[in-house]
Amino acid sequence: MDVQLTAAHWVYLAGILVILATMALRKNIVVPAVVATFLTALTFSGSIVTGLSAIFNASLVAAKELFNIFLIIAMVTAMLGALRQLGADRMMVAPFRRVMRAGTSSFLVLAAVTYVISLFFWPTPAVPLVGAVLIPVAIRAGMSPLSVGMVIAICGQGMALSSDYIIKVAPGISASAAGVEADAVADKAMVLSLIVGGTALLITYLVQKRHWRAPSLDLLVEWEAEADRGIGETRDDSSGDGGGSRPPRRPEPAGGPSGGGGEQAATATAVLVAPSDPIADLDTEAEKERRGTAKAFAMLVPLAYLAFIVYLMLGKFTEVVPPLQGGDAAAIVGGIAALILFAAAASTDRGGFLETTSDHLVDGLVFAFKAMGCVLPIAGFFFIGNPEFAGPILGISADAAGPAILFDLVTTVQAHLPQNAFVTSFGILLIGLVAGLDGSGFSGLPLTGALSGALGPAVDVDPSTLAAIGQMGNIWAGGGVIIAWSSLVAVAGFARVPVLDLARKCFLPVMAGLILSTVFAVLVF
User: Residue 211 CB: number of other CB atoms within 10 A?
Assistant: First the structure.
């Protein structure tokens, strides 16, 4: 079917090219997306009023589609804030220190713990939690700082975030733009992410192992000395055998955050307060109660989400319980996080936990909009190309169909492209990688999703497969693995290595995994 392209089609295409060029220049793409939205709507309608209102309507439509995602991010982040205030966050990962005795065991434990926690909590809040506790242990066990950073980036920002199988933020965005079910994209993205991550981890292990050394406390001292420029001044970490940053320069009072001050503090307390003093007994009892509560929550949180995973599996593979759809599962994740937040806040501050809970929720919402807010105007522009969303954005009545601008462009171009599944799949992967150059990892998902929905039927490939491939490119690039101006900075900061070196070392292992996963997707899916 011949498609007649109008001026609006060409303006929309120019907007896409400008956005991609802006990404390539490592600049923020919100302004180009908003300007392109205005010009496309103006050209389509011939009305400046419609053009101006489209700027607002595009973000509003995107917000309606994505706000459930914002709420989940906010609730999980708020829960982690409450756990951090209680002191339960570090206790959740502390038991893993006992098995991190050498380089290989540390490699495996670091990979597994980072992946699992990032899968549930997202890597942005989870990587600092894991890195602050486990990185020093891995360094002492003989791993090089660079290999530690690579493992955390690959498993957290890469493997966990690219599938996003639990919270389903990324599959939801991809599926909405592609017009398919979120679960279909999520299932395939999970398989592809494991292929990419497994390949990258194997290459990292084989290449980096020769740089590892015999376990020694001197390695930890050397690692800290090399970065001794005022960073990490006093992170107390007394719950392991030397697995932490340097001890505090000021003695903590007995029963401080780590559950027991240094020798100086203990001596001072013994001099000032006799062991039989009722005040000392009360302080000791309060500290024991606080630590007991923190331990209880450190066990409760993993058990609660483990039970949820079991429920998901039972619903997916058996008839014992009804299966959950993508939206239902994400809502339960948020609900569990909210209840744990309330309980943790009440345990920390019984008298003012109502206000404390509100503060944590506000912090969570602020974090969610900081992390995802820029996606709204970007998604709004790409939604104009989708007939399902174009109507409300352009002010067209609900009874009339919206223009399929992006699909019309794809239909016109595809006649000049090889009708080949491999060419199309690698093209979507490349677009995803380019879209990830802005460093966010999510802003390109509407584009790759929309292209997948349009190109899939033409080359006889399931659109959900192409959407999953595009999602891999988007997030492995911009999510914080091979792009230095992304959240990879946080990983490099914890590992204390140059972020450009870390990105460069991750590039070849990740690209090998992406190529292998794309070939697998075309042949198997």
Answer: 13
DSSP 8-class letter at 255: T
pTM of the model: 0.69
Distances (CA, A) of 433 to 50, 61, 457, 495, 502: 33, 26, 22, 25, 18
Backbone angles phi, psi at 145, to 5 degrees: -55, -35
Residue-level pLDDT, tens digit, the chain, 525 residues: 567 889 999 999 999 899 888 877 878 788 999 999 999 999 999 999 999 999 999 999 988 887 877 888 788 888 888 888 888 877 876 777 678 888 999 999 999 989 988 888 778 666 766 776 788 889 888 999 999 999 999 999 999 999 999 888 899 999 988 999 999 999 999 999 999 999 999 999 999 999 999 988 888 888 877 755 433 333 333 333 333 333 333 333 333 333 333 433 333 333 333 445 554 455 677 778 788 889 999 888 888 888 887 887 788 778 888 877 656 777 888 888 899 999 999 988 888 889 999 999 999 898 888 767 788 888 889 888 888 889 899 988 767 777 888 878 877 776 676 778 999 999 999 988 888 876 777 878 988 998 899 889 888 999 999 999 999 999 999 888 998 777 888 888 888 888 888 988 999 999 999 999 999 999 998
Cα separation, 521 vs 525, whole angstroms = 5
Cα 433 to Cα 436: distance, rounded to the nearest angstrom: 5
Determine the Cα angle at 53 with ends 49 and 58, to 5°.
145
Angle at 316 between CA 315 and CA 321, to 5 degrees: 15
- Residue reference for tokens 């982690």: 80
Read off the amino acid at residue 328: D
Q: How many residues in the chain?
A: 525
Residue 227, token pair as written in the block: 């970065």
